[in-house]
Design goal:
Layout lengths: L17 H37 L3 H4 L1 H14 L12
Helix pairs in contact: 1-3
């Protein structure tokens, strides 16, 4: 049996005991993605507040938030098929 987290959906294991582990892995992946998205949402809200508060000086005073937002943005995007369904 594969190590925890390494179960992939195939015809052989789709209707076996690995199915429960497959669903657990899917739920973990979805939960992790939502945590990343919610963290990014908080940073975006803080950034909007900073823009509003700083007005003219927002380019200098909100720089750290912009850099953090841009750094975290690619990680928080959901796209394509989930990793547990991707082909090798």
């Amino acid at each position: 049996m594969a190590e925890k987290g390494d179960v992939k959906a195939t015809r052989e294991n789709l209707y076996t005991a690995d199915r429960a582990e497959l669903f657990d892995n899917r739920d973990r992946i979805v939960r992790d993605q939502w945590v990343k998205i919610m963290k990014l949402r908080i940073v975006r809200e803080k950034l909007a507040e900073c823009y509003h508060r700083e007005s003219v000086n927002h380019m200098q005073n909100c720089r750290a938030l912009v850099e953090r937002y841009l750094k975290d943005l690619p990680e928080a995007q959901i796209g394509g098929r989930p990793p547990y369904l991707k082909d090798n």
